[in-house]
Design goal:
Elements (H helix, E strand, L loop, with lengths): L7 E4 L5 H12 L3 E6 L3 H13 L3 E6 L7 H13 L4 E6 L14 H22 L3 E10 L12 H21 L5 E7 L8 H4 L3 H10 L8 H12 L10 E4 L6
Parallel strand pairs: 1-2, 1-4, 2-3, 4-5, 5-6, 6-7
Length: about 250
Amino acid sequence: MGRLTDKVALVTGGSRGIGRAVARRLADDGATVVLTYARDSAAAEETVRSIEKDGGRAIALHAELGEHGDAAALWAAFDAATGNAKVDILVNNAAIASSSDLTALTEEEFDRVFAVNVRAPFFVVQHALGRLNDGGRVINISSGASRIALPGVIAYSSTKGALDTFTLNLAKVLGPRQITVNSVAPGIIDTDANASWLRGNPAAWERSAALSTFGRVGTPEDVAGVVAFLASDDARWVSGRVVDVTGGSSL
């Protein structure tokens, strides 16, 4: 039996990249995983199939995040798919990037990145309050950009700083129910989202690898292992923290 046997996990944005690795790892540890996707249904279904092939249990749900009412719609779909199951592990992973600096950022782009990266996790949690089991876990996927100055992605970095503050306060709110709340802050990770500038670009790859004390680019599995720890009973005394998963970048 895995250490998450009989647990139910929801992973937003679980069809690709870090979210996919997290979904697979939690399933490997025994959890039944519900993963959401916004557009790539093929990737979501492939993730489910890969989990089931390895003996795990998973469900994919279409869920847009970023508009008013999206969080409520996500949980309505969850209830319908699971028969109103309770949740033990909630991983807020879904996010979008913003690559504009201060001079180029538009109000529309600002609003969109904050809606998906900050407002959505807030209201996903709000609607989860009655569904979360006592002793559960909330894990927010932040970014090393919340502690490392990266002016070229200033809006994105700001959303992750806001998410970390949400984590801190939510840990205080949910502590009496023995629910832990933590942020996981990855550095540069080899995902499809970074493929356009990272893969096939030796110079970019070398610069990115050099940021880490280990001299390599991180993998989604590097992040998923830390999420799995925080989701387990071994992390029952850790809450309100930002766990740096940048491979010691920019120390």
